[in-house]
Amino acid sequence: KAKAEGKGTFRMFEPAMAERMQARSRLEADLRRALGAGEFELHFQPLVDVRTGAVTAAEALVRWRHPEQGLVSPADFIPLAEETGLIMPLGAWVLRTACLQAVSWPREIKVAVNLSPVQFRDDRLPETVAETLRATGLEADRLELEITEGVLLDDEERTLMMLTKLRATGVGLAMDDFGTGYSSLSYLRRFPFSKIKIDRSFVRLLPDDAESAAIVRAIIAMGAGLGMATTVEGVETAEQYAFVAAERCGQVQGYHVSRPLPGTAFLGFLGDLEAAA
Ligand code: C2E
Ligand code: MG
Ligand code: MG
Ligand code: MG
């Protein structure tokens, strides 16, 4: 674009670029400060078993309680945290905090933690996970790690080795945002995932859109055939819930059940369910 605008645009382009870079380094410094100041918090979104209606797990979702900007969503800081490496200490904090919280929940409720591809590149990840479980006292089978398809593209041999080591610690492995990446279906067979999470982009147009319906139905059937649990993400309406429940998916996650909640509110949600039952 700058080229098409001809001579002189270079000079105009520069300050804009410099500004962007300044904003970026300000955010980076702010992120670093926030880690030290303990400004991050976890919210928990329940996953509900469609057969029983019971909460079987909660996904930990990080938020930044910014002193001026209020609650900042992960989309606004995870990418930079990944580029700068700050995702390593942040990710370690998320893992430890999620495990610590889950220790105080009923035994049958698991906690799911998102892993960045950057964390996955660290060979010590399986030991870090095992060590965190030991330190927090959480049973391994109560932790589920969510990994996106993007992680699987780099190096298949290494991916298989890492996933195998992680599974050996006893944790569950969920393939997150399934259907949005490029991974082939054979990956699902090759890699030791215990769960598929169907991306919410396939749910948005349910139940009326025939193509979305076909895709969701096919993924659930495939998961069942491979002996994997399926969670459907982003279920916002009663109609969507009814559709995926009729298709016998395993669990549902979405605003129709609950938005992500701060820790105490999540416990309140569990209490309310129990009172209603
Ligand atoms: P994700 O792992 O796919 O998490 C689900 C996202 O969908 C969450 O957004 C959740 O609030 C949102 N969601 C849940 N139900 C619904 C619904 O019914 N409708 C709609 N429209 N959205 C729904 P959130 O919390 O903003 O997180 C966005 C992404 O940020 C996550 O996607 C995950 O990739 C990343 N993320 C969040 N926490 C962490 C973390 O601790 N570490 C890493 N590496 N990534 C994280
Ligand atoms: Mg996730
Ligand atoms: Mg997801
Ligand atoms: Mg997603």
Describe this structure in words.
There is one protein chain. By secondary structure, this protein is of the alpha/beta class. The termini are far apart. Strand 2 and strand 3 form a beta hairpin. It is globular and about 55 Å long. The chain has an eight-stranded mixed barrel with strand order 1-2-4-5-6-7-8-9, surrounded by five helices. The protein is 46% helix and 20% strand. Helix 3 runs parallel beside helix 5. The mean pLDDT is 92. The chain binds ligand C2E and magnesium ion (3 copies). One magnesium ion binds next to loops. Keywords: Membrane, Transmembrane, Transmembrane helix. It comes from Methylobacterium aquaticum. This is Diguanylate cyclase.
Name some characteristics of this structure.
eight-stranded mixed beta barrel, binds magnesium ion, single chain, Diguanylate cyclase, alpha/beta, 46% helix, 10 strands, binds ligand C2E, 277 residues
Structural class of the secondary elements?
alpha/beta
Distance between the termini: 61 Å
- What compounds sit in this structure? ligand C2E, magnesium ion
**Bulk shape:** globular
Compose a concise summary of this entry:
With 277 residues, the chain is of the alpha/beta class. Helices cover 46% and strands 20% of the residues. It has an 8-stranded mixed barrel, surrounded by 5 helices.
